[in-house]
Amino acid sequence: MRRLLPERVVSVVVFVILCFMSAAYGQGRSDYIGSDMCKQCHEDMYDNYVKSMHGKKYVSGSPARREGCESCHGPGSIHAQKAGEKGTILSFGKPNNAKGKSAQCMACHGDSKHLTFWNMSRHNTVGVSCDLCHTIHKGPKTPLTSTITPAAYQRYLLKMPVPELCYGCHQDVRSQTMRQSHHPVREGMMACYDCHSVHGSFGPKMMKSDTANELCYSCHAEKRGPFMFEHPPVAENCMNCHVAHGSNHTPLLVRKTPQLCQNCHDASQHPGRPYTSFETFKGASPSNRMFSRNCRLCHSTVHGSTSPTSRGEHFLR
Predict the structure, then answer these.
(1) 243 to 54, 179, 235, 253, 256: CA distances (angstroms)
(2) 203-217 tens-digit pLDDT
(3) How much is the pTM?
(4) What confidence score (pLDDT) does residue 206 get?
């Protein structure tokens, strides 16, 4: 009996310690309470949620087929017990914890082919979280000026239509698209995602191709060539002469001609010195270069020429 007594004491002590540990652990653990409990305080959000793609049980892997609201926000028992105290549940829409919020989305959407390069994307590295562009619940109605269909707008749960959504951060691009020479983005014939992969890519500026030229050629195939005589700046990079989003110089030129051409061609042939009355049409040595001062009046095939003569070598029409 004397030998058994210490063993019993030890067993009782261990049991008491385990009980205290279990109680302490239970106080810090939040459990699932169901979406109906969330609805009692967040009725408007719940009504929007059940109308969204996330709230459809027929969609494979949707939150509605699992824990509902708590699939994204996490278990809510402590949140409910503390009357919605901040920090007791994962809250979207606030400008903090970007990586945590994106990780919650990636838990379900991480295997999507559109998100393959998300971790290396510029948006991710600068702290842009999914909820800055998307809403977990149903988005607002789509304006008629949207460049995407209402069905697609609701499917992707965007907070506002493209390109207005992108302009929220890219104000400089908005300014460029308002210039006289621009791609038809504001007319609704193009969208930002036609050229950019918003979730990341191997190309610069999150472009859908490895180089600017390959991206431009997808629409401007006639500029690809091959040409007998190539214009070196064209083959190198379209952006040497053009601005992608908009310019005040047609067609999307960096500078007005002839100043643009004279960046390279000022040493010979047609020098960039100012003309005087001597070279005017009524002067002693009239020059047709006084007319409009535009190189493209004669050199019209600036992207490349297939003419086998010297005219093709100098990109003459």
Answers:
(1) 40, 11, 16, 6, 12
(2) 899 999 999 999 999
(3) 0.76
(4) 93
Amino acid sitting at position 208: K
Extract the tokens encoding 200: 């990341």
Helices (H), the chain: 4-28, 35-39, 43-51, 70-73, 77-81, 98-109, 122-125, 150-155, 164-167, 171-177, 212-217, 232-236, 259-262, 310-313
Q: Pull the structure tokens for residue 241.
A: 């002469």
Place of tokens 């401007």: 220
Each residue of 53-89: pLDDT tens digit? 888 888 888 898 899 999 999 998 999 888 888 888 8
Of 94-108, 141-155, 275-289, the poorest mean pLDDT is in: 141-155
d(CA 225, CA 279) in angstroms, rounded, equals: 37
Judging by beta carbons within 10 Å of its beta carbon (0-12, 13-18, 19+), is residue 106 exposed, middle or buried?
A: middle
Backbone angles phi, psi at 207, to 5 degrees: -75, 160
